[in-house]
Specification:
- The chain is α/β, with parallel strands linked by helices and 357 residues long.
- The protein has 2 domains: 89 residues, Winged helix-like DNA-binding domain superfamily/Winged helix DNA-binding domain (Arc Repressor Mutant, subunit A); 240 residues, 3-Layer(aba) Sandwich (Rossmann fold), CATH 3.40.50.150.
- Helices cover 50% and strands 14% of the residues.
- It contains 15 helices and 9 strands.
- A 7-stranded mixed sheet has the order 5-4-3-6-7-9-8. A two-stranded antiparallel sheet has the order 1-2.
- α3 packs across α4, α6 packs antiparallel against α9 and α9 runs parallel beside α11.
- It is globular, with a radius of gyration of 22 Å.
- The structure holds S-adenosylmethionine.
- S-adenosylmethionine binds next to α9 and β4.
Length: 357
């Protein structure tokens, strides 16, 4: 990394780093605008556009469309076709990142997620002062949908293969396997498990009702609604049926106000010969300062999203995104497990899989 600051960095270096961060933030928010307004989709569908063509195709303002197109060209994301009128074109690579919802390169939802966090800036300031939280519900639709959109390609393309060589695979391949997915969000993990295991039934639980509605729509569109059902439930606080072959929690234990309670519930929901699997952030075992890009990203999510979300529930453990192996081990033991083992899934985005037994 070229932008690492050290105790010997000069004030010029620090100022350059802050300026570079501001340019990154401008890119991020402009990408979120283009994503939310359908401008990237329209460019992908129509090819090169003038401001009025883009605005006409998306029901938006011509003047703002022009400013955005020029900004995107200035920052290098779009190309200019000179002429009268001037047109703006998106390369196939940019189109994939911004508009291909099934591509592993589709990281545009990250921008929407950070914009959704920024929109709650004053709530975050208040929460930091009062030691309270900002809930998933308060963060709203852009947060919920961007989270779901971010993880979707990984679940669709990589989840079945990642689990294939692990001790979990035979449990998923049992005749009529029963799978539970705790904190399922938009449901793409449940859907991917059902697609990969045609004899299995999957139930996804989430405390957030709009997430469950989204998950139901996604399952219907994916053609698996007959084997995948989604229920609103506060796992850990409600009695849920047991006997599942595998109970998963994908990227959510660190968000949960009471993770021990949830892990204990997952243990109860699992058949005696079944397994509990937690996928969470692949962070370092200790604080690194300065840290690498993954640690910086995870602390960013923690400050702006996950810690405030986790602190919005009563009796919060206040975990934050940086859920180190030792923290999850401590939670697992408190929930009644002997220990946890990392599954050899190979590289899987920013994540690591743990088998709790
Ligand atoms: C960061 S999102 C992850 C969603 C999904 N697993 C994914 O990978 O995209 C965390 C989810 O956990 C849910 N959640 C938090 N506490 C919960 C609880 N006690 N029971 C059920 N869901 C919970 C939230 O509503 C949210 O949808």
């Amino acid at each position: 990394m070229t932008d690492v600051l050290t105790p010997t960095s000069t004030s010029d270096h620090v100022a350059e780093r802050v300026l570079a961060s501001a340019l990154g933030a401008i890119d991020t928010l402009s990408i979120a605008l283009g994503d939310r307004l359908g401008w990237y989709d329209a460019l992908a569908e129509r090819g090169a556009c003038t401001p009025s063509e883009l605005a006409g195709a998306t029901g938006t303002s011509v003047r703002y469309a022009r400013e955005w197109l020029e900004q995107q060209a200035t920052t290098g994301l779009l190309e200019v076709e000179e002429g009268d009128p001037r047109r703006f074109r998106m390369s196939p690579a940019v189109a994939e990142v911004m508009t291909d919802r099934t591509s592993l390169a589709h990281v545009a939802p990250l921008a929407r997620m950070l914009a959704a966090a920024g929109a709650r800036f004053h709530d975050l300031v208040d929460a930091y002062r009062a030691d309270t939280g900002v809930s998933w519900e308060d963060f709203g639709v852009d947060m919920r949908e961007s989270q779901s959109d971010m993880n979707r390609p990984w679940f669709e393309h990589e989840l079945a293969g990642a689990l294939a060589g692990t001790p979990i695979a035979p449990l998923l391949a049992r005749p009529d396997a029963s799978i539970a997915d705790v904190g399922c969000g938009g449901g793409w993990s449940s859907i991917a498990l059902a697609v990969a295991h045609p004899d299995a039934t999957v139930v996804g639980y989430d405390v957030d009702a709009p997430s469950i509605e989204l998950a139901r729509r996604n399952a219907a569109d994916a053609g698996v609604a007959d084997r995948v059902r989604f229920e609103v439930a506060d796992v850990g606080r409600e009695h849920l049926p047991g006997g599942h072959d595998v109970v998963f929690a994908f990227e959510c234990v660190h968000d949960m106000p009471r993770p021990v309670e949830v892990l204990a519930a997952m243990r109860r929901m699992t058949a005696p010969d079944g397994a509990v699997v937690v996928m969470d952030e692949a962070v370092a075992d200790e604080l690194q300062a300065p840290g690498d890009e993954v640690e910086r990203l995870m602390y960013g999510f923690s400050l702006l999203v996950c810690l405030p979300d986790g602190k919005s529930g009563e009796d919060s453990a206040a975990t934050g995104t940086v859920i180190r192996r030792s923290i999850l081990r401590e939670y697992a033991r408190a929930a009644g497990f002997d220990d946890l083992q990392e599954l050899a899934t190979g590289e899987f985005g920013f994540f690591r899989f743990y088998h709790l037994a």
